[in-house]
Design brief:
Blueprint: H1 2-13, H2 18-41, H3 49-57, H4 60-67, H5 73-83, H6 87-109
Length: about 110
Amino acid sequence: FLSVFIIGVIIKFGNMNEFTLTITTFLRYMSLINIGLGVFNLIPIPPLDGSKILGAILPERAYFKYMQYERYGFIILMVLLVSGILFIPLVAIQTWIIGLNETIVNFILQIR
């Protein structure tokens, strides 16, 4: 959010020259990578954090059944990554979060 906010401030109050364009591009990519990694980490496959969140909300019996397959999590994750199955959903969620951030920043700064 902070990167998108700084980009909004630069666009609203700064002169768009080569330096500010470089800074805004850097911040944009930094926020895309940060949000992408955050969304990726929430996938409920061990060893990612999403599996721990899912484990916290599952009933105890289901949790132990789920954790029996923990040792296969990395292999499943690699297959999903290599096959590209995760690409479209992750990009869709990432795009939605960026759009939400930009909407909030635009509202705060009244850019548009």
